[in-house]
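Lecture notes, structural biology module. Today: joint structure prediction for complexes of two components.
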Amino acid sequence: MTITDEEVKQIEARALEIRKTIIEMLAEAKSGHTAGPLGMADIFAALYFHVMKHDPKNPAWEERDRLILSNGHITPVRYSTMAHAGYFPVEECLTLRKFGSRLQGHPERDMLPGVETTSGPLGSGLSQASGYALAARMDGKKFRIFCLTSDGEQEEGNTWEGAMFAAKYRLTNLLQVMDRNNIQIDGNTEDIMPLEPLADKYRAFNWHVIEVDGHNIQQFVEACDEAKSIKEKPTLILAHTTPGKGVPSIENDYRWHGNPPGKGPTDKIAADKQKEVFLQELEANKL
Amino acid sequence: MINPGAKLAENIFDKPDMASTREGFGKGVVEAGNADERVVVLTADLAESTNAHHFQEAFPERFVQVGVAEQNLATVAAGMANYGKIPFITSYAAFNPGRNWEQIRTTIALNDVPVIVNGMHAGVSVGPDGATHQALEDIAMMRALPNFTVISACDSEEGRKATIAAAKLGKPVYMRWGREKSPIMTTAETPFEIGKAIEFWRGEKPQVAIIGTGSLVHNALLAARELEKEISVVVLNVHTIKPLDERKLVELARECGAVVTVEEHQVHGGLGGAIAELLAREQPTPMEFVGMQDKFGQSGTAAELIDHYGMGAKSIIEAIKKVSARKSK
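The predicted structure, tokenised, for the full assembly:
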């Protein structure tokens, strides 16, 4: 799967729309995580609009590629991307975290078609994706399982249990995409619990590791292609991203990990007002 | 006297055949595997002592070894069930669900996928391994989870049937198993249905209902027989702790007017707790609770520990007398 410059531009335009919706839904919810979803918008756009085989009109299609989101707290980016891809109306995004909504604060499998598994508690996605991949291989299925993880959840023991398991069973139909954005709720990852050298750790666990700029669509798509040619190991795409990407005033600030517009760490400003500021920043800084 | 409708073993009081309940799991899971190719079995470095090795030998391609990693055990199985398999996961109850409870909650219960969680070596009867390996809280942990069915078989034959039934349920199930050999009370003809309690013993005009689960039901029968001339009782085997056979339990409490629960589990939150919640709502009844009285166990033989911690036939008799006396006040 190659990608043309024109296609890259289209995906970048999608990512901008996805980001705008993220800002709008978080401002409306007055609750939720901002930095992670913005940082992963390019990768989600690339997955849903280019890389993955899926059908928004038939979310239960048996041969679809599966996206297991391990770090469920960035689900606004998934909801926004799914809506823009046609799974449900974009307006429904404004029901995020509200009573009766299908868009739960952390995603639930039984609530919204297209959400493959329930997640939020960290560190359990990689094992679930591995089990899924092993079961699919038992039945000779050809689809791929994309497991999206965060860097912070590499602190969970369960993650490394899953990493060993995936390597043992040589799950080449499994692709882990890690959001290496260097922040977690309480601070920068290397201050809270140093993770480096992450790539070496995964290589030592018998994974194939590809490092990419998580905002470079071309690099990411090529890495997804490269993973297909790796026959002995599962692959990790270590995606270096900028938390809060697209809104320079909050980029790389861990204090925006767990807060929505209007509840930022410094300025006291109404959610609606801050939303407008963020949307203007997005337009001004689009790729 | 023994309820003839239960079709129990004839030698139930006279040198009964012995087998651990986990042996029933080992047989049942192979039968379930034969009946449905979606059945897979996972273990966390305990294939033999969980009896999962029988399945491993029969279906090596459907057996998954995850290593000493119980959180992985639960989550890999959740992924497999999410895909469409019917995974049985096996380890000691102290670790499964003891260590991986949150993973079970989020990825199995909330996902509502049909993983059958098997906790082996439950109760103090694990014996010499000591308190670390004697799971006494697992029923409480598992019956608090929505979507879960909770089963505790009284012997290997009932366990075999329960395993086959669990594979067909299409829902999350917790099954609790014992390590030690215990009397085989039931036969192939004994009726078994998930959610349906079954009377093993019924005296004339019963004054106390003994409601038991697991292999201690045999001690309940011994107590019933010994008291036969003195206090007439019913012994009810409750293999399904969730959902409870509410109608039967309320009827029985109404008929007898006093209840003793018997389980190899903490008295807080287990079978006794479940029955008390039900009866407080539907049929308030004096109760006594035979089980672990908010303590940890220790090393010893199974018989020593059951006796020491007050779960032997003698303790059940005392509880029956006590509740009977409370009733007549």
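Point to remember: Residues 19-183 of chain B form a domain with the Rossmann fold fold (CATH 3.40.50.970).
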